[in-house]
Amino acid sequence: MEFITYFIDLFIHLDRHLNAVIQSFGGWTYVLVFIVIFCETGLVVTPILPGDSLLFALGAFAALGSLRVELLITVLIIAAIAGDTVNYALGKFIGPRIFHEKGGTLFKREYLEKTQKFYEKHGGKTIVLARFIPIIRTFAPFVAGIGSMAYGRFISYNVSGGISWVVIFVTGGYYFGAIPLVRSNFTLVIMAIIIISVLPGIIELLRQRRSALSLDV
Fold first, then answer.
1. Which residue among 1, 49, 153, 163 is least packed, with the fewest CB closer than 10 Å?
2. Separation of alpha carbons 36 and 41, rounded Å
3. Which ranges of the chain does DSSP label H, i.e. alpha helix?
4. Higher pLDDT, 56 or 99
C-alpha cells in the first residue's frame, strides 16, 4: 500500500521530487532520467514509470537553468530509441516462446497470428502514435517484435516516433513550464498531461467494447 501511495505522490508532485533529484545528483541526473525513460520504453514489466509528465517536467527545469536543454533532449532521444529497440528484440526472440500452440488458455497462438496481421497493416503508424499513449508505448515494440515486423521498417518509425515524442514534451515544458501561472499550478498541469495522454487509449477501449457488444446483439 505504501508503494502505491509513493507512486501516486511521485506522479502528482513530480516537480518537487525532480527538484530533489537534481539538487542531490547534479550532472548524474542525466544518467538517472536516461535509465527511467529507457526502462519505461524498453522493459515490458515497467510501464508504470512516468513518461510524458517526466519529459514535460524536465523541460520546465531546463528553462529554469537547472539542466541543459540540448543535452537533455539528446540523452532522452537516445534512451527512447534504445528502449524501443531492446523491447522489439525481446519480443522477437523471447515473445513467441511464451505462446502456446492453438488451444492454449493463457497465451494463444491465435493472438500471435492476429498481431502479425495487425502490424502488417498498421505497424508503422502504431509505433509512432503509441509513443504518446502511456503503457501502450511500452507494449507496442514488444508486440511488433512478436509479429515479426521487419526491423528496417520498425527502426525508421522508432527513430521518428522517439524524436517527436521527446522534442514535443521537453520543448513544451521548456517554453510553458517556466510560465509563473503554470509553475504555480504545476500539479494540475501534470495531472492534465496524464489524463490527456491516457484518453485516446480509454476511448479506443470503449469503442472496441461497444463494437463487441453490437456484434453480440
1. 1
2. 9
3. 2-12, 14-25, 29-42, 52-63, 69-93, 109-130, 136-146, 151-176, 180-184, 186-216
4. 56
